[in-house]
Amino acid sequence: MSDDRRTEPTPCVRVPREEGEAARADLADRDLVDADHEITVADGVLRIPVTDPAAVPEAYDVVTHEAPVREGQTLPVDVLGWSPTYGRLGDIVILDEDDPERAQAAADAVMASSIPAGTVVNRASKVKGETRVRDWDVLAGDGTETVHREYGCEFLVDIATVYFSPRLATERHRVVEQVSPDDRVFDMFAGVGPFVIPAAKRGATCVGADINPEAVDYLRENARRNGVADRVTAHAGDVREVATDYAGWASRIVMNLPHSADAFLDTAVALAGDDCVLHYYDIQHDSDPFGPGERAIREAAAGYDVTVEARREVRSYAPHELNVCLDVRLSR
């Protein structure tokens, strides 16, 4: 950057450089990235300009920084005259437009803009079925596989065959930061490995199960990509079918299946060792977001002392519904 670039005092999220892409993707998904100013990096620190510092999650450090004014970049709004709703996963741009003609116009504008996009897709269905995948209309480009980078890990993902949400990057990082090298981590609904892989990179021994065999194939590939295949075991199938092989094994269990995790609590308790932390995800009404999950855990873990160590609102899921997490320690 030359010294004659115009700068302005701008609110920015400050993160370590290796966490920058995950933070940028998370902020972009929340529509908080300020496209009028440049992202800067210096001394291993990334500063990401944001439009509304009050809306930035508390997990981020917000500072004021002299950010360069962006010049010469073409955005979709510059092409269209209106701003389409979109997110990014790797080099895939994901639209959320109801009208097919409007969606195609938005896709063409994305490809004509300065956004580095290999493929543009539009949501064609809700998440559905046991594997939690959705249908997509591919409007530009020809592939639904991409590489997503998050907190120093990279994940090969095919959005047409597996479920993956970049929105949960900050939450995943919060959980993984608690993992120690002597942990035995069991992810009951592991997907392509966004909890398992970084936990293994911290030295933990990890097991991941998933009902979707495509996701398990990607989990194994991602373990190889990130150099942790020797610490990751992956199982394709219903976690209840493999749990007997790991009875009393886990010191940490991830249950990220928020609509129906309560149906698997007996299995989680069977997996738990004498001292085990359970990361239990739930979706509940905002009038009592934590109560139902806590009561279900206490009922299932009758042979343990149950201590709730954290109650966390992860994100708003729908009007008056919250996606929450309970960090619960089970001790015999």
Task: Please characterize this protein's 3D structure.
The chain has 332 residues and is of the alpha/beta class. The chain has three domains: 7-68, Alpha-Beta Plaits (2-Layer Sandwich); 76-143, GMP Synthetase, Chain A, domain 3, CATH 3.30.300.110; 165-331, 3-Layer(aba) Sandwich (Rossmann fold). Helices cover 23% and strands 35% of the residues. The protein has nine helices and 17 strands. It has helices at residues 20-29, 76-80, 100-112, 169-176, 196-201, 213-225, 239-242, 265-271, 291-300, and strands spanning 7-16, 40-42, 45-49, 61-68, 86-89, 92-95, 119-123, 136-140, 145-150, 153-158, 184-187, 205-210, 232-236, 250-255, 272-285, 305-318, 321-331. The strands form four sheets. It has a seven-stranded mixed β-sheet, with helices on both faces. It has a four-stranded antiparallel β-sheet with strand order 2-3-1-4, covered by helices on one side. A four-stranded mixed β-sheet has the order 5-6-7-8. It is globular, with a radius of gyration of 21 Å. The model has no long low-confidence stretch (mean pLDDT 92). One of its GO terms (cellular component) is cytoplasm. Keywords: Cytoplasm, Methyltransferase, S-adenosyl-L-methionine, Transferase, tRNA processing. InterPro entries: MeTrfase_TRM5/TYW2, SAM-dependent_MTases_sf, TRM5-TYW2-like_MTfase, TRM5/TYW2-like_N, Trm5a/b_N. It holds the Pfam family TYW2_N_2. This is SAM-dependent methyltransferase.
